[in-house]
Amino acid sequence: MAKNYNWDAIAEHPKFRELQRKKTTFLFGWWAFATVLYLLLLLGAGYAPDLFKVKVIGNINVCYLFALLQFLSSWGIAIYYAYVANKDFDRLTEELISEIEGGF
Amino acid sequence: MKRFLLSMTLVLTLGTALLAAEPASQAPAGGAATVVAPAVQTAPAQVTTPATATPPAAAPKLKTNRAITVSMFLVIIGSTMGIVVWAARQTKSAADFYAAGGGISGFQNGWAIAGDYLSAATFLGITGLISIAGIDGFMYAVGPMVTFVTILLVIAEPCRNAGKYTMGDILSLRSSPKVVRGFAAFSTVTVSIFYLLAQMVGAGKLMQVLLDIPFKTSVVGVGLLIIIYVGFGGMKATTWVQIIKAGLLMGCGVIMSVLILAKVGMNPLRFFSEIACSSAIQDHVRVLLKHPLAVPGFDYGQRFLEPGLFLKNPIDQVSLGLAWLLGAAGLPHIMMRFFTVPNAKAARKSVIVAMFLIGFFFIMSTVLGFGAAIYLTPQKLVAIDKGGNMSALLLAQYLGGGAGTIGGDLFLAFVCAVAFTTILAVVSGLVLASSAAISHDVYVNIIKNGKAEQRDQVRVARITSLVVGLIAIVLGIAAEKENIVHLVALAFAVAASGNFPVIIFSLFWKRFNTAGIISGLVVGSVSAIGLVMVSPNMTYPKKIAADARVIYETLEKKQSGGIVLAEKELISLAKAHADYEKNKDGKSMLGLDAPLFPLKNPGIVSVPLGFLAAIIGCLLFRDRRAEEMFSGIYVRQNTGIGIAKAAEH
User: Fold this and answer.
1) What is the pLDDT of residue A102?
2) Which of B315, B355, B639 sits opposite A74 (nearest CB)?
């Protein structure tokens, strides 16, 4: 590190605390969502075969659609995260950095 | 050095051409059938199909056109070597070697991650599994996709912000650096070697079938190519080989999917009804379900689209699922890719690009796999390779116009060359990760206390790549006859149980410290490896003996009933007797008669153990210094303050 930062002071900075609170909720929340959805697919295929074989459109059944949904939900989370991160997290980070560089 | 590099390239290209031109005499007749295991990297179990009973000599073979295939391979080798020469000229500092100087863009890195992640086994293995086991093959592909949510949300950006070149950099931020780096390097090398071994053996067997060259020659050839790529070109060459490979693989998948869908008028509904209506698929499913006669009213074709033909134990699936979900996030060679981009924003973009590419590819693989089942029939695919691993290649031949036609030969050769590039790209990434762990963590930071000249660092990194490459060749040759299917799943399980908990805690938990890192890494890794050693993945001779006994008893009963056995049956009778004698007193590698652990995948036990050990270790030995240093790490991993400057040189 070229410069000595006062890390504890930054960690107490209101901007940082706002950033960190928003990020933690978002990241771990969506991570848990994706994980549970995936485990549901595995458990469903094993323990609810009657539900999974119900035909929805033509010969396409719940199982294939649910597996496809995992891809769509992963992509959805990715796009939503990029949107929130670009709009919110990056802005807060930049504001924080400019305040620190100016203030210390 | 440039001249040396050029001459090496020339020698190697010529050598490959010569080797390829000389037909192998040692290649066993049933060569194709032996590819089964290694290529389905993810498959913890073999699919039991009637083909198991077919003697290998009778198995049909995939025929490639040698001249066309060899020239395609030479084009690939030649163009990648060009990249190596270009990259070698620009690789001067350690940052160039390990992280391409941080100069890869987010978009490029996304393609490279896809190239690193989609191995030949994913391409051939998943397509093959879908073609013979139906939708279960697709279920397999979901885990490797969903894991990218974990990587995107909690791994990529924090690692980019807090790390430099290796996993050791992240773990040693506020712990006793030397001890932790030692453990991290050891774990990185172990995980990478497991993964690499499966790739090397798979590559050797694949080349044996495609080019008709002996196993040893193909392993040595692949190994030498990798040593040149990594040793001279470092991360820059590795990245570009991975990008090119991802491009070829995606292109290949798109062309094949479009050709298949064109056959059903681009109508997915008609595609699915073709699957359900195919009489070959209906027959195949009936045999898989062990129904000697069709049960009236049972829709065998539709059953192919329902889960449970291949993945039978749901708990084992959850166990494997955990390894997928967390393992990829703890794989050192994937983590290393995030150090090649300039900042966290680019790391984020690269994961998103990779997610779309990988997901799109897996969805295309359902078209390829089901397409192969409809147009080539599962029976034919199983006869050529009982794991179905040749399905994608046979499909290419069929779509190009069929065996023996110019179009068929050309398209088959193209897809073979893509599979070959795929192997090169994946193994390069693994060798680079191991070499970085040894040279950066062990040499520079443990032996030299972090004070080594740039020139020295690059020299040592090149030497370690050479050594790791040579080790890969030797182990690859030694493992030819070993059952290495479980190695990739094991690499994921070790990464999920050993690496993942300690990475997450290092980045997010204030009280985490050296003791936690070491106990987490050791307990997680050892329990994953240990459980696999006593799982049904290993060979249990008594079980083989019992199976052999059933065979000879049935045949002898038939004989004593006055029926004269056919020649084929007499051969299997003698073989069953021999198998029984050979195995009846045998024990597994650890001296067991039967598996102690009932599941094939250790994740459901070893992942919680890894987390628990990390937590307990850390709470037992409290470290105030580590706690005080947390705000620095936490601010940095969230914002990139401090590190962002360093990356700009």
Assistant:
1) 66
2) B355
